[in-house]
Amino acid sequence: MQRILAVMAHPDDVDFGAAGTVAGWTDRGIEVVYLMVTDGDAGGFDDGITRPEMAALRRDEQRAAAKCVGVEDVRFLGRPDGRVEATLDLRRDISRVIRQVRPDRVVMPSPERNYERIYPSHPDHRAVGSAALDAVYPDARNPYAFPELLAEEGLGAWTVREVWISGGPAANLNHFVDVTDRFERKVSALRAHASQTGQMGDGLPQMLRGWMSGNATMAGLPDGRLAESFQVVNTA
Questions:
Q1: Burial class (CB in 10 A: 0-12, 13-18, 19+), 75
Q2: Residue 136 pLDDT > 90
Q3: Distance of alpha carbon 12 from alpha carbon 120, whole angstroms
């Protein structure tokens, strides 16, 4: 495992779902790259900030959050926040980055709606999950899919070995990562998204401990442990 690509809809998505896990990967010397499909311009709580200003702010926040968990390479596609669709154009753009990065693993949001906990099921999350999964299979590995990527950009086909899906229904979860020792780094990454989490104060770590301890319980971990949860799919 040398390189991992996280494809997410908005700045802060990867930090809510997987920052502790990412910190563990970078601690082991694995290169992690972030691809944010939107700039999160529809987020925040300050009416005095214009939408272009919010987009620029959230890009900076995501770069700062990434540094908290050892990630230096953060990329953005700049799609409109709240209006993402799983189009062929989006599949091509994600396939391009997969061929550029050549990751062994791709982390992505679930394309399925989670009725037990609705917040991970934002329409942008589901659209990005669907497009990213299609980009992994069949697009990025098929030299005849989006042939312009090879002909015009020299990007050859690449096969991703596995995907880790975050935020899906509990029945689909099959892998849990104990991140108790990296919890504070996860909190620091999320606090870097001040436009989104600043108003939460001490409620942020309390909220995180609530659902992460639930993940740990599902994983059969001892009391007091905290975990992030995924559905791992073999795509080799």
A1: middle
A2: yes
A3: 12
What is the torsional sign of CA 65, 117, 235, 37? Answer: negative
Give the pair of three-digit tokens for residue 141.
């590995």
Q: Of 166, 99, 167, which Cα lies nearest the Cα of 135?
A: 99
> How confident is the model at residue 201, as a pLDDT?
86
Whole-number average pLDDT of the chain: 96
3-state secondary structure 115-174: CCCCHHHCHHHHHHHHHHHHHHHHHCCCCCCCCHHHHCCCCCCCCCCEEEEECCCHHHCC
Structure tokens at 131: 């497009």
Tokens of 107: 């982390």
Across residues 154-183, what is the average pLDDT?
Answer: 97
Structure confidence at residue 45 as a pLDDT band (50, 70, 90): confident
Task: Tell me which amino acid residue 41 is.
Answer: D
